[in-house]
Amino acid sequence: MVIIGIIFALYLGLMVFIGVRNYSKTDTLSKYLLGGRSLNAWVSAMSAQASDMSGWLLIGLPGTAYAIYTGTSEAIWTAIGLWLGTYLNWLFVAKRLRKYTFISQDSITIPDFFENRFRDTKHILRLVSGIFIVIFFLVYTSSQFAAGGKLFTTIFGVDYKIGLIIGAVIILAYTTLGGFNAVCSTDTIMGATMFVALIIVPIVAFNQVGGSEGLSQRLAELTPESLGFFPKENGHINTLLLASSLGWGLGYFGQPHILVRFMAIRTPDEVHKSRIIAMVWVTVTLAAAIIVGIIGKAMMPDLADGETVFMQMINGMFHPVIAGLLMTAILAAIMSTASSQLLVTASSISRDILATIFKRDVNGRGIVWASRIAVVAVSVIAIVMAFDPNSSVFGLVSCAWGGFGSAFGPLILFSLFWRRMTLPGAIAGMITGGVVDLFWYNMSGGIFDIYEIIPGFLLSSLVIIVVSLCTKVHDEITAEFDSVSER
User: Fold this and answer.
1) Do 32 and 264 touch, CB atoms closer than 8 A?
2) Residue 95 CA: distances (Å) to CA of 21, 36, 47, 101
3) pTM of whole model > 0.90?
4) 21 CB neighbour count, 10 Å cutoff
5) Torsion angle of C-alpha atoms 86, 91, 95, 100, degrees rounded to 10
6) Span between the terminal Cα atoms of the chain, in Å
7) Lowest mean pLDDT segment, chosen from 215-224, 317-326, 463-472
């Protein structure tokens, strides 16, 4: 454990060093939150995917696949939905969002874009979107801190709450100091670390269980339906679970921490290269994460917490030096997403809420410091929310992912591709999506068993269309929309 601890310390030290190195480059809010729109194709792709997948990829998804009596098919179809969502997001949204946000008064955050796109002089969209960002990212960030707590507990045997705080403090250090450039630089390193670990671990584990024959034999002893492709209930396909799993793909269109990477790409022409890099990464990692869960069940069928399966496999199969290096992949997954979420949350608190309410300058150093303070405040609340050691990483991520997909997803798509959309339609659609998602999430049984993102997304889209058709769109807005299409 000492060797793993040393490797962790060196890795974490590198992340903090990157934050310190980027400190002098964050004197304006644009540089702190968007890096001056300077990301190249590799960094934008790796940062988007690393911040997207989070500790969920190495903890939540393998844990779901580990529960093979009910979870393997759910994990597979969730991965398919995520793959489709990733591809469509890069294909349709990325390039147009990069161009539109630049033309629309150089918007540097998603609430900025909403306000500028619809000429919202009363700042309603900015305030409502800021509130939803704070609500859902508190849940999302707490899921990453919970993953960190499980990591340190499993590896070092420390108390869950101590592990939680250790991980949170490190993330705070480089995010608060270095801002967007530091986060994207560390994301690139973390994305590569996750990719390598997810290739090595299942290959070694597959050989240890005796290849395909040994794996099949062990799984057959657990349940004859252990590798079922479709989720079933009482012998029939569970359509609600199938739709819910695929519904994860809808969430991509509304995730601020992913969308902001599109906005920060150096030029729109680099989006195509970024898309290829991103799709190779996501295809390999999603497939590998599911395989880890399945093989882990065959190797260690009685784990108390299935979400620790990846860590337990590494501990049991590798020399401490190699294990330490591979474990940094889990740390990387947690840190990459948490830092991105903290940065977006800070921007909403400082720029979208405080600056709007108090009518302060949003470009000075004072607002940058307000963002840094907001990062700390949000982290403290997220830590408290994650104090329960039984917190499910998969469940927490599911809640936040559905919330953003419902509140922001339809709004982003219609904003980019529907000329006739109006400000009242945008406000009504956002509120509908967010409220429906929260209501649905807190219900259970019957039709409420379907993933809340589906009704939230559909009802938000319907309200946007109806309200927009009943209200007037201004010529200035349509002229700007047309100028984006011409470029």
Assistant:
1) no
2) 30, 17, 16, 10
3) no
4) 15
5) -90
6) 56
7) 215-224
Domain assignment present for 54: yes
b (16+ CB within 10 A) / e for 206-219: bebbeeeeebeebb
Q: Write down how long the chain is.
A: 487
- State the residue range of the domain holding 316: 2-392
CB 230 within 8 A of CB 242: yes
Distances (CA, A) of 282 to 161, 190, 230, 252, 410: 31, 14, 22, 13, 23
Dmax of the chain from CA atoms? 68
Q: What is the CATH number of the domain that holds 141?
A: 1.20.1730.10
User: What would the mean pLDDT of 36-52 be, rounded to a whole number?
Assistant: 78
Amino acid identity for residue 47 in this structure: S
Is 473 among the domain residues? Answer: no
Tell me what the pLDDT averaged over the chain comes to: 81
DSSP string for residues in 167-207: HHHHHHHHHHHHHHHHHHHHHHHHHHHHHHHHHHHHHHHHH
Per-residue burial over 153-190, b if 16 or more Cβ lie within 10 Å, else e, is bbbbeeebbebbbbbbebbbbbbbbbbbbbbbbbbbbb
pLDDT digits (tens, 9 = 90+) for 377-387: 878 888 888 88
Per-residue pLDDT band at 234 (split at 50, 70, 90): low
Residue 170 has pLDDT above 80, yes or no: no
Q: Can you tell me whether residue 233 is helix, strand or coil?
A: strand
**Of 222, 143, 115, nearest in space to 396 by CA:** 143
Backbone angles phi, psi at 39, to 5 degrees: -75, 135
Q: How confident is the model at residue 336 (pLDDT cuts 50, 70, 90)?
A: low
Domain-embedded: residue 362:
yes
- Confidence class of residue 485 from pLDDT cuts 50, 70 and 90? confident
Least confident segment among 102-106, 421-425, 426-430: 102-106
pLDDT tens figures, 62-100: 888 887 655 567 778 888 999 999 999 999 999 999 999
Does 32 or 459 have the greater pLDDT score?
A: 459
Hey, what are 426's tokens? Answer: 């945008």
Q: Is residue 29 part of a domain?
A: yes
> How many separate domains does the chain show?
1
Using an 8 Å Cβ cutoff, are 151 and 330 in contact?
A: yes
Phi and psi angles of residue 258, each rounded to the nearest 5 degrees, phi first? -90, -45
Residues 7, 255: Cα–Cα separation, whole Å: 32
Structure tokens at 422: 């109006």
The pLDDT assigned to 183 comes to 60
Question: What CA–CA distances, in Å, run from 14 to 20, 72, 170, 186, 189?
Answer: 10, 36, 11, 9, 10
Give the whole-angstrom CA distance, residue 477 versus residue 481: 6
